[in-house]
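Q: what sequence does this backbone want?
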């Protein structure tokens, strides 16, 4: 059976600025790498200079859309000052996307923060919300006639969990109390930002769609002797990590669409109410290079659960890191099939973005794991399209898949 997608369906790939652009020195992540002795992002993929070439390759794969992020630390490299050079650069980037026939989906915050913002207390200080809103307003005013889709924050609960509970990302805090404070401030920043973007677009005739990118996983209790408590932790993770913020913002009428990032299933073991990931059990699912449990049916199940919100859905990230091309291809095909099955069940899905267009810097894990449709040789910055990417290109061209 074939599923034909609507002509307006967005077929794309995604990147983030810090992971790809390179030479990004005014962020908390650059400071963190040095302090912790981690791999340095350094030149990353040199996308800041090579973006036009990368967009040409994206178009050669029949993509019609592209998700990227603006780097706050470039736009505001020092306290309360904007860089006209950076603003001009991002304006040119969006222009080139349009020239290539790629509809931009723009993220304003993808994990990184300017160092001056952190030095003033970062997201722990509610007074700092104003600085983020000033940045948001400046960028949206600049690009309002060129951008229809805005994502204000990427995966805020991932940022909070890793930075303020596990402490493995900057600022390296381990405090549920402070994590709650950061969550409150980010939610408040989102609500203010949503209203500001709507206000800005009132003056023009271009429609605007606003959301945040929400990472979701299928959570299951670790199948050991403590299964009952493990299942409780899985239930709570599903309720609060997956759905709380979406339910809250939807009640506030501040989501125009749902932006879903989905990768895998997670087995959870009981460790207080928050729980912890369980990787040592003998799970049935295939694991990718990072040890993630690959579970395409979970993608379908989450899409069905999101149907209740009665909002259009864009898959803003879905992908894997593998060593064999056949495993990339299998992951892609299986997830697209389950996406199509969800559409048959009446789920309103408007687009799909593979993570990532390019192999890139994978945060605390460095350059080892490769998610890209396009391989990057980091020593020479030479790009090579991976074989499985041509499978995706064919789907994008035909705008249909077999189920």
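A:
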């Amino acid at each position: 059976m074939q599923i034909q997608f609507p002509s307006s369906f967005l077929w794309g790939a995604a990147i983030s600025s810090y992971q790809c652009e390179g030479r990004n020195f005014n962020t908390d992540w650059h400071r963190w790498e040095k302090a912790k002795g981690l791999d340095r992002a350094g030149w990353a993929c040199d996308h800041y200079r090579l973006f036009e070439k990368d967009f040409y390759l994206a178009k050669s794969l029949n993509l019609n859309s592209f998700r990227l992020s603006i780097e706050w630390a470039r736009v505001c490299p020092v306290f309360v000052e904007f860089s006209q050079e950076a603003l001009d650069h991002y304006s040119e980037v969006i222009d080139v996307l349009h020239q290539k026939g790629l509809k931009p989906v723009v993220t304003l915050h993808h994990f990184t923060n300017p160092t001056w913002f952190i030095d003033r207390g970062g997201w722990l200080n509610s007074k700092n919300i104003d600085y983020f809103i000033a940045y948001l307003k400046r960028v949206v005013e600049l690009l309002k006639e060129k951008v229809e889709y805005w994502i204000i924050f990427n995966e805020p609960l991932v940022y909070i969990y890793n930075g303020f509970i596990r402490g493995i990302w900057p600022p390296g805090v381990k405090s549920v109390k402070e994590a709650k404070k950061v969550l409150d401030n980010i939610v408040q920043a989102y609500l203010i930002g949503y209203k500001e973007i709507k206000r800005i677009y009132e003056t023009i005739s271009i429609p605007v769609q606003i959301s945040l990118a929400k990472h979701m996983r299928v959570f299951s209790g670790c199948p050991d002797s403590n299964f009952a408590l493990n299942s409780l932790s899985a239930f709570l993770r599903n309720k609060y990590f997956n759905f709380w913020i979406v339910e809250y913002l939807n009640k506030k009428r501040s989501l125009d669409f749902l932006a879903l990032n989905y990768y895998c299933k997670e087995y959870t073991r009981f460790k207080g109410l928050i729980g912890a990931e369980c990787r040592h059990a003998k799970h049935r699912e295939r694991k990718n290079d990072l040890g993630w449990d690959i579970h395409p049916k979970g993608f379908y199940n989450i899409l069905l659960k999101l149907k209740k919100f009665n909002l259009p859905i864009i898959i803003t990230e879905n992908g894997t890191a593998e060593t064999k091309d056949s495993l990339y291809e299998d992951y892609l095909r299986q997830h697209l099939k389950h996406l199509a099955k969800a559409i048959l069940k009446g789920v309103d899905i408007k687009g799909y973005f593979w993570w990532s267009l390019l192999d890139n810097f994978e945060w605390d894990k460095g350059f080892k794991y490769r998610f890209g449709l396009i391989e990057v040789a980091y020593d020479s910055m030479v790009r090579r399209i991976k074989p499985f990417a041509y499978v995706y290109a064919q789907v994008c061209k035909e705008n249909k898949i077999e189920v």
